[in-house]
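sry for the spam today, last one i promise. struct tokens for design, 150 residues
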């Protein structure tokens, strides 16, 4: 069994629906084909994916597990990353990290990402990919600021 199918077989139908909706297109074409074949094997088409997402019973769970706010899965990945984006922050934690950086020491924080739908729960370095709409707004904002500076 391939690594892709091994991962997908560990997902329930609800998680697989969110995976298909939010992460399928982030993979290379060959892997996308393998995932689409697996979706067919599991009898998940577009309408069933929509239905599963809209009726996700995990949204009503009230347990102690850390869950993704988008898909409600508990398959969360935590990676320790070097905290590099400390500029412009306020508070003692930012000051300590800045001074540690000047002294050649690194400060680490958790980057927390949902393995099912790709939602970023914590992004200490603000590296989360921006949606196209935000990119367009940022370009317009930069143009406006540039025009005002002239």
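last one done:
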């Amino acid at each position: 069994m391939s690594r892709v199918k091994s991962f997908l077989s560990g997902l329930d139908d609800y998680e697989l629906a969110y995976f298909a909706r939010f992460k399928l297109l982030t993979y290379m074409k060959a892997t996308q084909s393998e995932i689409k074949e697996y979706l067919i094997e599991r009898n998940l088409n577009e309408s069933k994916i929509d239905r599963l997402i809209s009726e996700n019973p995990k949204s009503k769970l009230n347990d102690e597990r850390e869950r993704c706010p988008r898909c409600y899965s508990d398959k969360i990945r935590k990676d320790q990353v070097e905290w590099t984006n400390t500029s412009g922050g306020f508070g003692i934690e930012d000051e300590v990290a800045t001074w540690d950086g000047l002294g050649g020491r690194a400060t680490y924080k958790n980057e927390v990402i949902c393995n099912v739908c790709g939602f970023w729960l914590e992004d200490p370095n603000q590296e989360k990919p921006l949606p196209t709409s935000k990119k367009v707004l940022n370009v317009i904002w930069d143009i406006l600021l540039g025009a005002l500076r002239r």
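The first helix runs from residue 3 to 9. ok im logging off now
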